[in-house]
Design a protein that fits this description.
By secondary structure, the protein is mainly alpha-helical. It has 16 helices and two strands. A hairpin with a 7-residue loop joins β1 and β2.
């Protein structure tokens, strides 16, 4: 899916209750989570629920119903979003590639979606969200999608609660939801499609990094494997696993926070891209010197990825912050060469703007407009610095994917720990601290600059986990799979190596 739609869909999933901290359901019973809908979900019920907003059970029912319907709308448009991302990333990869391998690269951009969808349907969703219902929630809360997700209540972890099946002190993996087929369960299908689109985004990123030289057979194996690292990181972050539980277990802020996937989606994709490129070997073609023939395709692809968000009519804080960060990052990458009396590169400007979106995704619901400007600007600097570093290591065109998604995604995670201002995420990951409520009036996600340095600590931990686990698993996969199915295409089918270099030593395209 295009990156803008991920923000929109997650904003719809959150709804008013998740962002304002209103309780939308009962606290877990002493013997474990209740699996049947509580009485106040019955429209005929007249007994007020004591923890409900204003003590009105009808309001709780309506709040859950509204959140469910708001999520079904974007989830029903998932394939439209996936198609948009497919077209955008195909044009970007096509613009960066040489003509001889254009068909090969375009086919990969299209084929990743059915391949990854199969792996996510078979086991990815179960591993990632199979124990979602037992994740940490604040007292008095219920899933914003209603009781339909009560079936996702088994998993694997450490420190099992003997009084409640499926509850762990440190959740590691879900074990329900393999081959989901509950087509009458709107809540389950909404969550499935929402997270599938997020997963497809992460799975596509390495194609940019390994364009032109990734063998088709190894790519197909990758498409069936890639759900594993995504499901692990997603379970620990979004599925109620041990990173999400770090706030309650270790007193580290609200646990690991990543609103729209700076780390879980983009950072992870960037780490897989880096690992794949390390195994395949560098291309030596600089990102700044893409063929002029590819510039129109590249520009069109970036426009498809960015323009829908810039002109989106939804005016929520998360969307406005995303637009702000895009403009801030793109402007900095545009003006920096001008300040040094150099000509800006359209490739660098477009990729820089995309890096702003990647960086703000993790924090957009929790920061101010001014912070979004800073986060986007720093993302532009991180992107340019990363490209320069990688090019010195002979990593060229592929540096775009690694820098835009990997480096900027990691920065986005750290930005949450620095700039989150406490206005959103009340009770997030089950954390409600009386001291913060007494001091600030609520206990929202709050970073270093707003009184909670522990949030930065857990963001550093989460960023390290994303980088190490993502790169480590991917590097192992490519190394092992290379023994059976070579990762790199045969030399005879690779684009011909240019015969001469220019004065700077860069091979002409």
């Amino acid at each position: 899916m295009p990156a803008p739609y991920l923000l929109v869909m997650l904003a719809c999933l959150a709804g008013d209750d998740a962002t304002t901290g209103q309780p939308v359901g009962p606290a877990p019973a002493a013997e474990g989570r209740v699996l049947a809908p509580p009485d106040y979900f019955n429209d005929a019920n007249t007994t007020a629920w004591p923890d409900a907003p204003s003590g009105d059970s009808k309001k709780v029912y309506e709040a859950v119903a509204r959140a469910t319907s708001d999520t079904i709308w974007p989830a029903s448009r998932s394939w439209e979003n996936i198609l948009s991302w497919s077209v955008g990333i195909t044009l970007v990869v096509g613009g960066l590639s040489r003509t001889k391998r254009g068909l090969h690269n375009s086919m990969m951009c299209l084929a990743i979606f059915p391949l990854a969808c199969v792996s996510f349907w078979a086991y990815g969703f179960a591993f990632g969200w199979g124990n979602w219902f037992n994740g940490p929630v604040p007292p008095g809360w219920y899933s914003p999608l209603g009781p339909g997700l009560e079936i996702l209540n088994h998993g694997v972890g450490l420190g099992a609660n003997p009084a409640a099946v499926g509850e762990f002190k440190y959740g590691l993996l879900g074990t329900t939801g393999f081959f989901p087929h509950a087509f009458d369960n709107a809540a389950l299908l909404s969550l499935f499609w929402l997270m599938l689109v997020s997963f497809e985004t992460a799975a596509t990123i390495p194609i940019w990094s390994m364009a032109e030289c990734w063998s088709w057979r190894n790519f197909c194996c990758y498409g069936l494997w890639v759900a594993l690292p995504f499901a692990l990181i997603a379970n620990w972050t979004w599925g109620g696993g041990w990173l999400a539980q770090a706030g309650g277990n270790w007193g580290l802020g609200h646990g690991f926070v990543d609103f729209a996937g700076s780390g879980v989606v983009y950072g992870l994709g960037g780490m897989i891209a880096l690992a794949g490129r390390r195994v395949v070997g560098p291309s030596g073609r600089h990102l700044r010197k893409v063929s002029r023939r590819g510039i129109p395709l590249l520009t069109a692809g970036l426009a498809i990825l960015l323009v829908p968000l810039l002109f989106l009519e939804i005016a929520g804080p998360a969307i406005l912050n995303a637009k702000t960060a895009i403009i801030s990052a793109g402007s900095l990458v545009l003006l920096w060469p001008l300040a040094r009396r150099r000509t800006p590169s359209p490739v660098m400007v477009g990729c820089g703007a995309l890096s702003g979106l990647v960086a703000i995704s993790g924090a957009c619901a929790y920061v101010s407009f001014a912070a979004a400007v800073i986060i986007g600007g720093v993302a532009g600097i991180v992107f340019m610095s990363s490209v320069s570093l990688l090019e010195r290591k002979s990593i060229g065109v592929e540096a775009g994917a690694i820098s835009v998604f990997g480096a900027s995604g990691i920065w986005g995670l750290l930005a949450v720990g620095c700039f989150a201002n406490g206005t959103g995420g009340h009770g997030f990951n089950g954390v409600v601290r009386d001291a913060y409520v007494a001091k600030y009036g609520n206990d929202g996600v709050r970073g270093l600059f707003y009184g909670d340095p522990s949030q930065l600590v857990v963001q550093l931990l989460g960023a390290a986990v994303v980088a190490i686990v993502g790169f480590g698993l991917a590097f192992a996969f490519f190394k092992v799979s290379n023994w059976f199915v070579p990762v790199r295409v045969a030399a005879v089918v690779e684009p011909a190596v240019p015969r001469a270099a220019d004065a700077s030593g860069q091979q002409p395209l």
